[in-house]
């Protein structure tokens, strides 16, 4: 993983302050590649920058943020704790260096600011010099390696990772900020310094233990009815803003179950709420339609925290209250190719790109998850 691991380190002196004060400098190509890597990030990018922006890097570079799902901010997201506390927190261990991911504020509180993700590559100087007119541009190749690593990890950061989906992937576990934790089954955790005992800070739940074949070429009727029940229930809350502001994200098996519904409906001449949504067509994302919302699947989706492993899940994501926060001063910052220093034993050119980010929800109640659907046998 590009971020390496996290390990304990005390925060009790001011020399641990974040000193990253760079302006918003990034390579549009790498940023575009990260937002277009997978289905979910394409959909988030389409909401955040407009569907046309996702068609090519030039349009993406000139796009103005829409204000939906992608936030470019400064400042911090406060968690709580004393700045005089010597107990272990977290330190980022990267390929070249270690950074403390906390930004210490004045007063009696400290705050986790953002997760810091770094992808770096090395090119021995002698190889670069000897390959000036060679068939392979070494620095260009290394840049693609950096891009590929960050693309992969950026998706894991938001969607979780199959090997540890409940562990606040890509950041200190106390933040619990990836999708399986933000929209979860077990809601005993404090997310964003708001206790899960508050009803407005609990997302909707719908356990589905059977798809319920209903004839007509195996139409999963139980699945449809329970999804519809949960979707309609969440839309009754004041925070919800209607079906057009939802995106349904599902696992591969969940997508295939739903495809049975669509197929059976088309063969039998039904008039149900099936078919395709064209909301993300221009962004290259095909989506089914359910209850007014596009339904997509992404290969990286994992089950929500508290659900049974190896089952199928559906996330009902309320678009206006789900966001991926990107720190404006560190918005996919390209560090450039740095030449070796005089004292280096092995002169090596180093390049890297980094981003400080956090996924989050401004309200949790309008979101919902359907879970524990038996693994699809298709």
Please supply descriptive tags for the structure shown above.
21% strand; 378 residues; 23% helix; disordered N terminus; alpha+beta; elongated
What is the first-to-last residue Cα distance? 32 Å
Alpha plus pi helix count? 8
The count of DSSP E runs of length 2 or more, i.e. the number of strands, is 17
Radius of gyration: 22 Å
Strand order of the largest sheet: 8-17-13-9-12-11-10
Q: List SSEs in N-to-C order.
A: EHHHEEEEEEHHHEHEHEEEEEEEE
Task: Describe it.
With 378 residues, this protein is an alpha+beta fold. It has a domain at 5-156 and 323-361. It has 8 helices and 17 strands. It has helices at 28-35, 39-49, 57-62, 125-130, 138-159, 179-182, 221-234, 252-267, and strands at 5-7, 70-73, 91-93, 98-99, 102-103, 111-112, 115-124, 204-207, 246-250, 276-277, 287-290, 293-297, 312-318, 322-327, 333-334, 348-361, 368-373. Helix 1 (28-35) packs parallel to helix 5. The longest helix is centred in the middle third of the chain and has 22 residues, at 138-159.
Topology:
Layout: E1 5-7, H1 28-35, H2 39-49, H3 57-62, E2 70-73, E3 91-93, E4 98-99, E5 102-103, E6 111-112, E7 115-124, H4 125-130, H5 138-159, H6 179-182, E8 204-207, H7 221-234, E9 246-250, H8 252-267, E10 276-277, E11 287-290, E12 293-297, E13 312-318, E14 322-327, E15 333-334, E16 348-361, E17 368-373
Parallel strand pairs: 2-14, 8-17, 9-12
Antiparallel strand pairs: 1-3, 3-4, 5-6, 7-16, 9-13, 10-11, 11-12, 13-17, 14-16, 15-16
Helix pairs in contact: 1-5
């Amino acid at each position: 993983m590009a971020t390496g691991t996290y390990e304990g380190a005390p925060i009790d002196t001011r020399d641990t302050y974040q000193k990253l004060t760079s302006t918003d400098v990034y390579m549009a190509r790498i940023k575009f590649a990260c937002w277009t890597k997978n289905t979910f990030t394409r959909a988030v990018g389409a909401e955040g920058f407009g569907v046309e922006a996702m068609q090519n890097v030039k349009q993406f570079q000139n796009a103005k943020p829409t204000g939906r799902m992608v936030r470019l901010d400064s400042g911090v997201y406060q968690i709580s704790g004393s700045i005089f506390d010597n107990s272990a927190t977290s330190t980022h261990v990267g390929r070249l260096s270690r950074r403390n991911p906390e930004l210490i504020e004045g007063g009696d509180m400290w705050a986790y600011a953002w997760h810091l993700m770094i992808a770096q590559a090395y090119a021995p100087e002698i190889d670069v010099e000897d390959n000036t007119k060679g068939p392979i541009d070494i620095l260009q190749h290394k840049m693609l390696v950096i891009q590929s690593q960050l693309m992969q990890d950026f998706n894991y950061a938001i969607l979780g990772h199959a090997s540890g989906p409940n562990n606040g992937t890509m950041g200190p576990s106390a933040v619990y900020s990836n999708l399986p934790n933000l929209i979860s089954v077990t809601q005993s955790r404090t997310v964003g310094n708001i206790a899960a005992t508050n009803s407005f800070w609990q997302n909707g739940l719908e356990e589905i233990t059977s798809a319920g074949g209903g004839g007509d070429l195996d139409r999963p009727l139980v699945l449809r009815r329970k999804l519809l029940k949960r979707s309609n229930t969440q839309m009754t809350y004041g925070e919800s803003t209607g079906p057009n502001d939802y995106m349904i994200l599902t696992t591969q098996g969940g997508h295939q179950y739903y495809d049975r519904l669509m197929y059976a409906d088309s063969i039998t001449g039904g008039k149900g709420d099936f078919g395709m949504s064209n909301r993300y067509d221009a962004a290259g994302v095909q989506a089914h339609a359910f209850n007014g919302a596009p339904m997509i699947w992404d290969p990286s989706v994992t089950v929500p925290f508290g659900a049974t492993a190896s089952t199928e899940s559906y996330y009902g994501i309320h678009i206006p209250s789900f966001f991926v926060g990107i720190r404006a001063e560190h918005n996919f910052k390209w560090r450039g190719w740095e030449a070796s220093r005089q004292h280096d034993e092995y002169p090596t050119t180093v390049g890297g790109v980094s981003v400080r980010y956090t996924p989050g929800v401004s309200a949790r109640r309008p979101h919902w998850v359907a879970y524990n659907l038996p693994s699809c046998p298709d």
